[in-house]
Amino acid sequence: MIAPDPDSPLAEAFLSSPNHGERRGFARPDSVILHYTGMATGDAALARLRDPGSELSSHYFVTEDGAILQLVPESRRAWHAGAGIWKRERDLNSASIGVEIVNPGHDGGLPPFPRAQIEAVIALCRDIARRHAIRAERILAHSDVAPARKRDPGERFPWDVLARAGVGHWVDPAPIEAAAAFGRGREGPQIRSLQALLALYGYGVEVSGVYDRATEIVVTAFQRHFRPAKVDGEPDSSTVATLRALVEGLQR
Ligand SMILES: [Zn+2]
Predict the structure, then answer these.
(1) Is there a cis peptide before residue 153, judged by omega within 30 degrees of 0?
(2) Which of 128, 184, 185, 137 has the alpha carbon at shortest distance from 163?
(3) What is the pLDDT of residue 84?
(4) Burial track 75-110 (b if 16+ CB lie within 10 A, e otherwise)
(5) In this predicted model, what pLDDT tens digit does every residue of 178-230 receive, in sequence order?
(6) Is 100 designated active site?
(7) Residues of the chain whose pLDDT is less than 50?
């Protein structure tokens, strides 16, 4: 079978993965989900994403030196997100384009993402967002949509650099202060308000008013993306202020 031409002019080659299906309920994607590969080498990750036995794939694959490969046509549903939720949508593979970024991840010591790789991710996201009219706040981390299972692309991923290049939604994190946090097990209107803001932004969290383990996990995911200097699951004043500023800045 001859591979199709890449959908993105930035992709150097189309290396087909057999792991995809029909998009269900989405004529076109409305979001981009960013991942790290989390394996020792890029070659091993690429082989896995093209192995029929893995049942895993992504639309794009970005190497450490910034080469972009396409594995699945954008019109098809790639298998990268798994179980998750964002803005009440659960079939995130049907709703999104998946981008795997070569990096060994937390288990490999979370090394920094090379500059050339980040520049390629920026260019690719801009291209995808323009062609599909994807909103800035729909450029997401895998950990945003699957916070209980996933940590990628991780707190070393430079979302601030992407934002300065016009990719993704970002506000500078509010300063971290030594203010008292309301931690796990606490309950009340402050916690209900925090959960409501998280849910409004898109996270899958129950607005219960109780700071339970599930809420702590979502707050950790929020920090990993938006307040990466301190990822501890504590809803401190900086976390809440940063979230509030993001919600206020949502496109209407
Ligand atoms: Zn992932």
Answers:
(1) yes
(2) 137
(3) 97
(4) ebbbbbbeebbbbebebbbbbbbbbbbbbbbeeeeb
(5) 766 666 668 999 999 999 999 999 999 999 999 999 999 999 999 999 999 99
(6) yes
(7) none
Task: State in Å: Cα 31 to ligand 1 middle.
Answer: 14
Tell how far the Cα of 247 is from the centroid of ligand 1, in angstroms. Answer: 24
| Total Cβ atoms within 10 A of residue 2 | 6
Q: How far is the CA of 97 from the centre of ligand 1 (A)?
A: 12
3-state SS, one letter per residue, for the chain: CCCCCCCCCCCCEECCCCCEEECCCCCCCCEEEEEECCCCCHHHHHHHHCCCCCCCCCCEEECCCCCEEECCCCCEEECCCCCCCECCECCHHHHEEEEEECCCCHHHCCCCCCHHHHHHHHHHHHHHHHHHCCCHHHEEEHHHHCCCCCCCCCCCCCHHHHHHCCCCCCCCCCCCCCCCCCCCCCECHHHHHHHHHHHHHCCCCCCCCECCHHHHHHHHHHHHHHCCCCCCCCCCHHHHHHHHHHHHCCCC
What would the two tokens of residue 170 be? 């970002």
Measuring CA to CA, which residue among 229, 103, 217 is closest to residue 159?
229
What's this model's pTM, rounded to 2 decimal places?
0.96
Backbone angles phi, psi at 154, to 5 degrees: 95, 165
Q: How far is the CA of 37 from the centre of ligand 1 (A)?
A: 7
- pLDDT for the residue 4: 83
* Distance of alpha carbon 75 from alpha carbon 23, whole angstroms: 7
Report CA(110)–ligand 1 centroid distance (Å).
Answer: 14
Pick the catalytic residue from 74, 89, 100, 234: 100
